[in-house]
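Good morning,

Both structures are done.
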Amino acid sequence: MKKPLLEFTNKGIYCAAAKVYLDPWKPVDKAIITHGHSDHSRWGHKQYITHHTNIPIIRHRLGDINVTGKEYGESFIINNVKFSFHPAGHIIGSSQIRVEHKDEVWVFTGDYKIEDDGICTPFEPIQCHTFITECTFGLPAFKWTPQKEVFNDINNWWQQNQNEGKTSILFGYTLGKAQRLLKHLDTSIGKIYTHGAVENMNEVIRTINTLPETILITRETKKEELLGNIVIAPPSAHGSTWIRKMVPYVTAAASGWMTFRGARRRRAIDKGFVLSDHCDWQGLLTAIKETGATKIISTHGYTDIFSRYLREIGYDARTEKTQYEGELSELETKKESEVSS
């Protein structure tokens, strides 16, 4: 039986012909990395290869690592296997990995979305035979509203809170979601304050892309300064001692999980905005169709349901287990949320 070009092992996705791993979750000699989220770029590899804009991000998170950067579309050969990075549209610096060997082409998406968010390089469909896709939101119930409408709602919510003399606290993951929120907030309404973990990442992103002016919240910041303005913080800051000095405030979260009211209720959030850096159901199907692939491997998310549907409509589809967590991966620890508390 012919050995697959990419196989799923206990260390990660492995290309035996090149002796290299894609987004491995255990330490390996050589790792090709799709993006900077913690479930895809882990500490301990001897050598990292990634898109060049992802280098400052993973160095910020992992420290002084041995890393090489590539451009989108730039081919590089490892043991006669050809690799290249292509835009994933997930967050800044995110990529799909194209793997070609002996007239066979596979594409590993990492995490991705097909809507152009205006801050990262938009998703680019790549022709292939086998497509490894996430399906974090692989249920028909997930159907995203265009982000322009979502940001209109967010800015109107901020304006209303300001009219009522309250501080708006908006939770979004430190890497990716926070910067997307910042990019589209209406700064004519007021000032944008940030949690320390968010601001630390902003400093890294500002070396890659432009962001609006933000003000770091410190111990010296008075709640009177925050009234009427907006605060961007990681989800883990909710309920912490850091947030108590901001009374009176109104909270909101921006996430694909806000589709379900129960998720907002469990997290004791006042308002939920459905905004994800992953594809919805239709986005996944559109991306798959545009690749021309006949074989589909679903990794993290609603894998069984999504793969079953793909088989029903004619694809050769199966699932594989990984240690990727999709939108759950950036739930920062309490320790990180208390930076600059």
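Second structure follows.
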Amino acid sequence: MRHLVPAALVAGLALGGCSGDPQERYCETVVEHQAELSEVAATDDPGAVFDALDAYDDLAERAPRDIADDWSAVVDPLRALERVLAEHDVDPSDYDAEAPPAGLGEEVRAEIESAAREVGSEQTVRAMAAVEQHALDVCGTPLSR
């Protein structure tokens, strides 16, 4: 009888008793980032989306397999746009495609606009909708309030 208790304990640990449920950890992360993501969603500043990137990275890292590709489809284009803007010292909050900063050459504008189109692409928009819906359906809460 004494051997059954340790065997049951080892079996429970092997089944994930100690590691926790990945879905549960992901949902806890959603809740942890809600206030921050809500602030970003509520602002009119077009550059504020970059303030959400660390939270998005955290969520993407903890995302269950069924939503991981969607998180990549959201985060990767945003990181690419952030990189292009930083490389050319362009403030995302001030950039306007109709009235770009003085001295910004056509090639740089085209590079920025291309990266921005990826962020606004149908694939990225669908992926964002998918991660938002997943948070509602699986976690029972939105990404932002």
